[in-house]
Amino acid sequence: MIVNFKVFFNNSYSLTETIGLERTSKFKFEGGDAAWEEEKLGSYATSEIRFVEIQEKLCSEVLDGKEQCYNLLEEYDESLEHWWFKKQNEEPDLYKYLCINTFKVCCPNMHFGKNCTPCPGYPDNICHKNGKCKGSGTRKGDGTCHCDKGYGGDYCSKCADSYYVSYQDDNKFLCSECHHSCDGPCTKAGPAGTSTFNFISNIKIDLYSFFFRL
């Protein structure tokens, strides 16, 4: 059930669009005396009519796994109905109510694992803003940082091999690739940035100075 429920939400473009909350937000009772119906039958916003209209459109925009979407809709119909009539006023975020709190198969964004542990650097410096937290938003993953190209370290806090710090301030740093002629680490752009280049250059200078003195 855990995997299926996660797929159910992943197949949605966005939760509010898929279940039709946004699509029907400005609708009202049609035909007859709408004002009388609002007064006698209650607001359309929380009505059974609107709930049925949303259900009918729930899986219509799902491109992959449409049949599974309908099967899951039937399986979780009771939970959706309970939220609609009993919980939506106090817990308006359906995704949080069902996926995170009720079925416990999701975590808030930038949290991971069984206990929804915050990702490294949460909330403003996840993986030093140079990578992604493994398992973010799920009950899986171990929260390790998967670094972007050019960055390394456990928390993506340094440049990877063959990259150098090309910019740095109090909030971020940027890593750029070493020149293709560099053999080993480098400290700046161009072939002069490699330690090998600097070593050879120093030898040439020393030899020039030696022969110049002869």
Total helices: the number is 8
Which ranges are low-confidence, i.e. pLDDT below 50, for 5 or more consecutive residues? 10-20, 197-212
Order of helices and strands: HHHHHHHEEEEEEEEH
* β-strand number: 8
Identify the strand order in the major beta sheet.
1-2
Anisotropy-based shape: elongated
Q: How much strand content do the residues show?
A: 5-15%
> What is the overall pLDDT average?
77
Overview of this structure, please?
The protein has helices at residues 2-10, 15-18, 34-41, 48-57, 66-75, 77-87, 94-102, 195-213, and strands spanning 111-112, 117-118, 131-133, 145-147, 151-152, 158-159, 163-168, 173-177. The protein is of the alpha+beta class. The protein contains 8 helices and 8 strands. Helix content is 37%, strand content 12%. Among the domains are: 2-102, no CATH class; 111-158, no CATH class. It is elongated and about 70 Å long. The strands form 4 sheets. The protein has a two-stranded antiparallel sheet. Strands 3-4 form a two-stranded antiparallel ribbon. Strands 5-6 form a two-stranded antiparallel ribbon. The longest helix is centred in the C-terminal third of the chain and has 19 residues, at 195-213. The relative contact order is 0.07.
Features:
two-stranded antiparallel ribbon; disordered C terminus; alpha+beta; elongated; two-stranded antiparallel sheet; 214 residues
List the helices and strands and how they pair.
Layout: H1 2-10, H2 15-18, H3 34-41, H4 48-57, H5 66-75, H6 77-87, H7 94-102, E1 111-112, E2 117-118, E3 131-133, E4 145-147, E5 151-152, E6 158-159, E7 163-168, E8 173-177, H8 195-213
Antiparallel strand pairs: 1-2, 3-4, 5-6, 7-8
